[in-house]
Design goal:
Blueprint lengths: L3 H24 L10 E6 L9 H17 L5 E4 L16 H7 L11 E3 L10 H14 L5 E2 L5 E5 L7 E5 L13 H16 L6 E5 L14 H13 L4 E4 L5 E4 L7 E5 L15 E4 L3 E7 L4 E7 L4 E7 L5 E3 L1
Parallel strand pairs: 1-2, 2-3, 3-4, 6-7, 7-8, 8-10
Antiparallel strand pairs: 1-12, 5-6, 9-10, 9-11, 12-13, 13-14, 14-15
Length: about 325
Amino acid sequence: MVTRRNLIRQSFCFSAAFMAARKLSAAESTVAPAPQATHALMIGDWGWNEDYGPQKSVAKGMAGYMIDKKIMPQCLFLLGDNFYGPFKGGVKCPRWKEQFSDIYQKKDFPFPCHALLGNHDYDDEPVTKLAAELEYAKATPGTRWNMPAKWYRLELGPAAKPLVTVLMLDSNYHNTTVSLTAAERDAQMAWFKAELEKPRTTPWLVVMGHHPLYSNGMHGDDPALIADWDDLFKKHKVHFYFSGHDHDLQHIEFEEHPTSFVISGGGGATIREPKLEKGPFAVAVYGFTHLEITETKFFVRHLDASGKLLHAFSKNPDATWEME
């Protein structure tokens, strides 16, 4: 159980360690990305409906970063709040072109974009927008958009020997308008537990959802998700939980917890200043996250919209981790 005293003690320890490593981390990782590894990029909260400028800047930064580091990711993860505001036309809405295919152009991002649902994908004409996101791939042959269901499983790495099991979840438990129904919530939990119980052949286990369990941001911790998911993370030794929702970049660790909690919510929506109460990292900035995976090492790098490295750490299959 995470107590306030433990959080304070942990935050103090992380603050000291973080300050000692900050100069190195902010300048350049000690380990450069290896082109032969498995790579993925990640953004959340990208579909802002007022000003596409920050979204375009982050997309440009990701494209430049791939060229500079000579990497070709397997995919781009979209961590929800894919489209804010009105969404007239459903699968024919012009925003599919304006904010998806024109900004993440195929020449720069020639790989699948695996998406999950955020709270803003439920609001403002929830039936139209939600249905469109779930139906778009089927209605648009050749699209890179992938959202086959509200929750689903995929794997990353070589087809013959995958490295990562990824469970994509719908974390919309308590939206003000529409969210998962009680029946859907029960069905997802049953599916989630069944997936976790399956024999796993990959060295890495990752869970993704829009809402954080723990956060230094405006929304704070989510008691409902903590109650339902956190013990499962511990029991099954989930290596990472990636989320968005708070418009910033974060990395949170707890002593004797196998899961690293990473927030990547700087994809385009207006950023908001977090507080570094749970360490080791939190910053309000437009940016993205780079995942680099091998059989024995999993690197996570937070970068700003220009592709500048802000924070990096690596993790081992036994759940130990270190700043890079």
